[in-house]
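input
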Amino acid sequence: MKREFRVTGMSCASCANHVENAVKGVAGVSDVVVSLLTDGMTVEFDAPATEDAIIAAVVRAGYGATVPEPGKELSFDDGPRSSGSRRLLLSILLTLPLFWLAMGHMIGLPIPPFLSPHEYPYAFMTVQMVLAYAVAFVNSRFFTGGFLALIRRAPNMDSLVMLGSGASLLHGTVTFVLALIGGGERAVGLSMELYFDAAAMILTLVTLGKTLEGRAKRRTTAAIRALTALSPATATVRRDGVPTVIPTEELKVGDVLILKTGDRVAADGVVVAGTGCCDESGLTGESRPIDKAEGDRLATGCLVSDGYLEMRADKVGQDTSLAATVRMIREAAASRAPIARLADRVSAVFVPAVLAVACVTALVWFFVSGPADAFLHGVSVLVVSCPCALGLATPTAIMTATGRGAEIGVLVKSAEALETLGKVRTVALDKTGTLTRGEMKVIRVAPAPGVDPDRLARVAYALESRSTHPIARAVAASLAGEDDLDLPTYSVLPGKGVYGKANGVHLFAGNAALMEGDLELDLSPLSEETGAILDVGGTPVYFSEGETLLGVIGVGDTLRDETPDAVRHLTELGITPVMLTGDHPRAAAGIAGKVGIDEYEAGLLPDGKAEAVKRLSRERGPVLMVGDGINDAPALTAADVGAAVGAGTDVAVVSADVVLRSSSPADVVTSIRLGRATLRNMKENLFWALIYNAVCIPIAAGVFSPLGLTLAPWMAAVAMSFSSVFVVTNALRLRRFR
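output
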């Protein structure tokens, strides 16, 4: 089973790694993913593991964990914001006078005579110490969290801040005591070596950085909060014939909702009365209003921009498409991209390594130039190091990209799928319903020689009226009104057709592979009619009764208007489009020629499509498979990344890694561009997170001090605080993806 947990107390990537390792140690746990971005944890486990055992493991690791109530989702909110803002404001108000007092006399700022370091050194030192300890008290969470992490032998970012700021406080306090003991001129000299301002600046600047980081992180989840807000709080339903307003949570399957202009749809269902226009842009990115009438489907979150509609609720609450979309984004955000493995390995050892470097730095400088430089460089190394940037590098990009994708109708189920989209070089495309509209119509009916047309029509209607395939629906629609046969036995033959049994007689409808290969029927009497159907890109469907060939019905489809442009854009991106279809080669050639596809494979059964996808992957690298039907499910699963059009079958959507809600081939191009933009963004974030530490730690350690290049502790705090802010801000650029 899979469960989500909310983890509290994490401050950096090292915390997330520690929680993850602690939960992995619980017997029965098979997989754990901890998200620093959302403070969430997804755990897959079986007996003997339990929710209580998992929570206990997190608590033993020094953190907190809770399970959301049944039926409720974890919030992406980062928790109370007012307390953090108040802490930052108090820190600034206390640090500014401290900085002014400690540094003002050096840069010519006026200082009250009673605080002059030369005339009243003890007052000068006392006020600084009080202000510094006040800042430390306001930001005590760094000290408590950092100390607990140290004694648990799992040091984190709080530990580095605690040691850096604490060392400055301790240094200042010891210096103050020595000044009291020495007195006189010694007190005046020692008052210049307090570093209380460094302690306060470290805490204040780190708090400022975490506040800005939190605000930026909340912006990465703006898309999912906007999606959640699409579901209205109330709905108007017809109860006992009377319109009644009820909370959305009380909706039941079968309720009839009344929708007027300006109302949002609160459930998934079918229009049963009325006409109107619906704005589905919040779900699919399609800005053009869609006309709706009786029989059309409506999805939760759609806005009725004009008209009056009544709809029957088929899915409510957590079963709606909107809820499924939100869950999909959450799962994608919680998943881990393969590119993040380097960051995970570095983060696991980062803080202990920084502590070791800081100790070595302090020792070297102690013997080279004395305790003052040892203190400054050791503290700077502690403060400048920031594991947060590494931990946020990929999750922020994934969260922003999946949220943006949902806004424009591209739903990505995992971080791995999003990364793979950025690497694909070949796109395998199903024909019917993907390149074409899937709106079939009968273009030719040809009974076999000597067969009564009514006999063909009756059998065709009986078989095809029970199928949901687009071709079958077209045949059944063209024959509506025919007498139906009683078919106690009926089954689908995937990739070939359908079978039924009436009055002891076997009835078949399907393609040439079924008729010639399995039933061994001779199709040559219909060769001329078949050729005419294929020449116009149609699909021939053959019918038989027992061992008698009844005839062929040609069904044609129309290309989507945007298909040729989509194929052209794929080619411009350096991607090779390949069409895979179960149709006859002549029909496939006609469609391929119209859309500009040079490579195609026809006459493929479901397993044949899957094998073709695997072969393309072996020969050319990552392959994206796009399809919409039951026949495409094996190929979608076999592909490196599978994309199902939103109008496809549930089987196809479940099998896919990406869902294209508008069913447009143009969204295939969009999904690949989104994947490339995300992959590029993750690489940029990881580069800057790693290069930042690779450059700043040596500078803070004083390696370049002979050249005059070094970092004071407060400068190190600025650099550390803004490294993670930079990473998150860079990820936010994906919100502008078009």
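quick obs: DSSP finds 27 helices and 24 strands in the chain.
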